[in-house]
Specification:
The chain is α+β, with helices and mostly antiparallel strands and 409 residues long. The protein has 14 helices and 16 strands. A seven-stranded antiparallel sheet has the order 13-10-12-11-15-16-14, sandwiched between helices. It has a five-stranded antiparallel sheet with strand order 3-4-8-6-7. Helix 12 packs antiparallel against helix 13. The longest helix has 18 residues. It is globular and about 70 Å long. The two termini are 26 Å apart. Bound molecules: flavin-adenine dinucleotide. Flavin-adenine dinucleotide binds next to strand 1, helix 3 and strand 8.
Length: 409
Amino acid sequence: MLQICHEFHQPVVPQAGLTNVVGGTDTNAHEIALSLERMNQVEQIDVVNKTVTVQAGVVLQQLRDQVAAHGQLFPLDLGAKGSCMIGGNIASNAGGLQALRYGVMRNLVLGLEVVLADGTIVSSMNKMMKNNAGYDLKQLFIGSEGTLGIITRAVLKLDDMPKTRNTAFIAVDSFEKANALLLAAKTHLKNDLTSFELLWQDYYQLMTSKPALFAPPLAQHYPFYVLLESLGQDADRDKQQFEAFLEQCLTTDLIVDAVIAQSQKELDWFWGIRENVEFIFSVHRPVFLFDISLAISEMDAYIKTIRLALQQTWPDVYLYTFGHMGDGNLHLFISCGHDDHTTKHSIEEILYTRLQPIGGSITGEHGIGLEKKTWLYLSRTPEEIALMRTLKKALDPRGILNPGKLVPD
Ligand SMILES: Cc1cc2nc3c(=O)[nH]c(=O)nc-3n(C[C@H](O)[C@H](O)[C@H](O)COP(=O)(O)OP(=O)(O)OC[C@H]3O[C@@H](n4cnc5c(N)ncnc54)[C@H](O)[C@@H]3O)c2cc1C
């Protein structure tokens, strides 16, 4: 199909679960939308070598379920897991709720099969942890957002299915304490530390006040809340260790309050508060969402600065902040002004131009797509962008793959 499209200069837009939020799968009238949803087979689960060979159209949740039936964990976990597909996850280098421990998609892919723009099939279905035979070509396509090739199959890494899950909602009285808690959790919980999600007070209050679905597990007056989770293998030791850690944090005033989930219902409750972001759209309109990356040491000052800057233009602005603090990646949901390009552009200017001097990135997870293309220069040097153009030209000389996305014109 790609051979024919190449011959006739026919643009093709690869589509998977359509959960990207950056216009990455938008099509124009003359473009072909290429869905891989029927390439939906999990081909081989290798429990000895801990790999799974999978087609690009497999839905992430289905992959997680299928490998779990073999006692294995595929550790990519994100809110859209019921719809997003492996091809889309790879093309967008998805991260998520357990990236602190297991890494992002880039760390989970061992091998790839890709169809190039001219129809050439590049099979690089490596299964080994180490392979230094030349360029690591798969990395070129991971995070390329459908602009360099169509991902059709992949070999992914599996991990041990955890036997224990300890989860707590924690209140802290400053950002500095949240950071100290993160460092302490890394020391005490070691490799079991899986998620460290930070919620600013506004977000916590919104998500735990009526008409929201969830009651507050902790009082609502603290400035920051942490959702901490560790996954382990030792039922007796892990619970004890987790409780002892929190006890010690309370005694040393590192944290001011904490509650540990005691049942699946409480786990759903805690994670619901963090994940049910769609609720914001039922309360506010318009809502603009962002996924930025920055050094943990810069986060608090950055959020304070942009809050002030936003308030200067829109005194009644709502800024909800939360995210994967452990990975230096925050989500901002902002409601102000009108649902138009001018408002969005003004917010982007406030957010993105203040990220550049502190070495942050305009996207930690969602990628560039159409929406952030004009801001790419704030996160990449002219030389990097020139090299991206060179790669695009070399692999897709007729510009038929996801035209207009990611690479600035
Ligand atoms: C509620 C919610 C929560 C989310 N949470 C997270 C999160 O925690 N972490 C995170 O990283 N993202 C998150 N996202 C964003 C999104 O889910 C991810 O980017 C996801 O990986 C996209 O997968 P998809 O299958 O929906 O891809 P799509 O949206 O269909 O496509 C994404 C990009 O990949 C390209 N593409 C798709 N399939 C292929 C293929 N086979 N070959 C080549 N290119 C292809 C598309 O052209 C497009 O550019 C979230 C989104 C929502 C709605």
